[in-house]
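Workshop exercise sheet. Pairs work together: one partner reads the sequence aloud, the other fills in the structure field after running the prediction. Swap roles for the next sheet.
Pair: D.N. / O.F.
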Amino acid sequence: MDAVRPHLAQVRKALPLLDVNDFLELPSLALGLGLAVDRIFVPASPQEIRARQASLRPVRSQALRYLEVAAELGLVPGDRVKKIRANTGPVDEARDGVAIAALFIDSEAALAGKHPFSAGALEQLGDDGNWLISQLLPSGATAEKTERSPQAVVRDQLWTDVLRRYDELYQAGVAIWGRRKVDEHIPALHSRVSAAAATAASKAVPTTPATP
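Structure field:
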């Protein structure tokens, strides 16, 4: 974009039907595309899931056993504790983490100074549970083909627009430098280093003298 901007008058003259303002918005459009990509759900790896489970399980087990004692003492609602304990399996473990953290928050006044769990540990328990719930498939359920999420739709629309506007930018580059030299000023869409920078770098590398 920095290479093209000084030549906009030349582009307008050579390509009167091309709206230069269209491709001048490419940087902000690409930023929006990056943000859209970040908002799309990406399935975690088995290793990531196991790591979260390893974080959740000890605290869940200890906190649940504590709450069962607290329920017997009348400090927390016994029915809620029984409901947490009722089921088994990875998905239920994750839901337990969220429910346990919520129960500690709801019973904060009654449990203040009566348990060994830090606020950070309980918050992490809830976070691990929420994360695992979003990643795990309930037992007996089958993965089904789902429609694209709204975030994925926005991503694809932005990507299509980026492609279109980049083509316009490339046309402008051809009008300025010609087809043979345009790649020296406008890099390919997926490249991380411009062709001009790469060319300059290669020229800067000293050649090894030939052996006599």
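Discussion prompt: Confidence is low (pLDDT under 50) at residues 194-212. What would you look at next?
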